[in-house]
Design goal:
InterPro entries: Mito_RNA-Proc/Resp, PPR_rpt, TPR-like_helical_dom_sf. This is Pentatricopeptide repeat-containing protein. Belongs to the PPR family. P subfamily. GO terms for molecular function: mRNA binding. With about 200 residues, the protein is mainly α. It has eleven helices and no strands. The chain is elongated, with a radius of gyration of 21 Å. The protein starts with a helix and ends with a helix.
C-alpha cells in the first residue's frame, strides 16, 4: 500500500510538471485538468501544493469553483491548518461563492480539535446567519470541543441552543457534558451530573 501511495505521489508530481511544460509551449490546459490535479493533491493531503498551483494558474483562463474551494478547505482541515482554511473560506466568499455545511463543518471540527472552540462558535453563528443549519456533527464537535476545554457553561448553552433552535438532540453530546461534570469536584457539578444522568 505504501509503495502505491509513493507511486501515486510521484505521478501527481509528474502530472503537475507535464501541465507546466504544456503551458510553456503554449498549450491551453482545460479547467477540468486543473480541477483533477488540485483534487489529487488534496486527496494526498498536500493542500499547500494545491493552493500553490491555484495561485500560479488563477486568472490564466482558470478560476477555482466552489467545489475546488471545498476540497482544498477540507484538505487543510485534515492537515490541522484551520487558519489557512479560514482564509480560503474568506476568499471563497469574496468571489461570491457560498460555503455549504460541508465547508463549515470541516472548519468547525478543525477549530475544535485545535482548542479553538470559541472561534468555532463564531463560525457556527456566521453559518446560521447565512441560513446554513448545523447538523449533528457540528453539534458534537462544538460540545465535545467545549467539554475538552472544560467550558461547561458554553457546552450546556450550546446543547440547549441546538435543541431549541434546530431540534437536535444527541446522547453523545449529553454524555460529553456528564463526563465533564463528573470530572469536576464541586458539589454543584456533582448534583448537576446526577440530575442529567
Amino acid at each position: 500500500m505504501q509503495e502505491a501511495r509513493c507511486l501515486l505521489h510521484d505521478m501527481i508530481g509528474e502530472a503537475v510538471n507535464l501541465v507546466t511544460e504544456l503551458q510553456r509551449f503554449g498549450f491551453v490546459v482545460s479547467h477540468d485538468i486543473y480541477n483533477y490535479l488540485i483534487a489529487a493533491l488534496c486527496m494526498e493531503n498536500r493542500p499547500f501544493a494545491a493552493k500553490a498551483l491555484i495561485d500560479r494558474v488563477s486568472g490564466d483562463r482558470y478560476e477555482p469553483d466552489d467545489l475546488v474551494y471545498r476540497e482544498l478547505i477540507e484538505s487543510f482541515c485534515r492537515c490541522n491548518c484551520p487558519d489557512e482554511a479560514l482564509c480560503l473560506k474568506a476568499e471563497m466568499v469574496s468571489k461570491d461563492l457560498k460555503p455549504n455545511i460541508v465547508t463549515y463543518r470541516a472548519i468547525i471540527k478543525c477549530l475544535c480539535k485545535s482548542g479553538r472552540s470559541m472561534d468555532a462558535n463564531s463560525l457556527m453563528r456566521e453559518m446560521t446567519g447565512y441560513d446554513v443549519p448545523p447538523d449533528i456533527e457540528v453539534c458534537r464537535a462544538l460540545i465535545n470541543g467545549h467539554c475538552g476545554e472544560n467550558n461547561f457553561r458554553e457546552a450546556q448553552s450550546l446543547l440547549s441552543f441546538f435543541a431549541k433552535e434546530f431540534k437536535i438532540f444527541d446522547t453523545v453530546c449529553y454524555t460529553a457534558i456528564v463526563r465533564l461534570l463528573k470530572s469536576c469536584e464541586s458539589p454543584q457539578n456533582q448534583h448537576l451530573s446526577s440530575v442529567m444522568s
